[in-house]
Design goal:
single chain; mainly beta; five-stranded antiparallel sheet
């Protein structure tokens, strides 16, 4: 449903609500579409300030639906996911280094923390 919060949870194979399609919308910028809902990753209210909750919403041309997926370049295979309109923000678990199941995902300042690094893998 549009406006539904993005939360962190334990992985469950076959749960299409945990699967996202990355589609390039312009060089270096992507939209992330949820396989189950068909909605895209967005920031509440079109804001990218610290603590802004991540949601799913209907696709449109808002800048907060465009994301940069940046390799950490440290050989770990992890990525930083950041709003395309910011070089200093990052998609982050709201509880930081103590993430919990059903904990919300927010936009926050990037501080090179491990909990701000994301793995991308093929679902099938």
């Amino acid at each position: 449903q549009s406006g539904a919060a993005i939360v962190q949870n334990n992985y469950s194979a076959g749960d299409t609500g945990q699967q996202w399609i990355l589609s390039m919308v312009s060089p270096g910028n992507y939209k992330l579409t949820n396989v189950n809902s068909g909605l895209v990753l967005d920031a509440t209210g079109g804001k990218i300030s610290d603590g802004t909750p991540m949601i799913q919403s209907a696709p449109n041309s808002n800048a907060t639906q465009k994301w940069t997926v940046k390799s950490m370049q440290d050989g770990t295979g992890f990525y930083q996911i950041l709003p395309s309109s910011s070089a200093t923000a990052s998609v982050t678990p709201s509880k930081g280094s103590s993430p919990s199941a059903n904990g919300s995902i927010v936009v926050s300042s990037y501080n090179y923390a491990d909990f701000q690094k994301w793995a991308l893998s093929l679902a099938n």
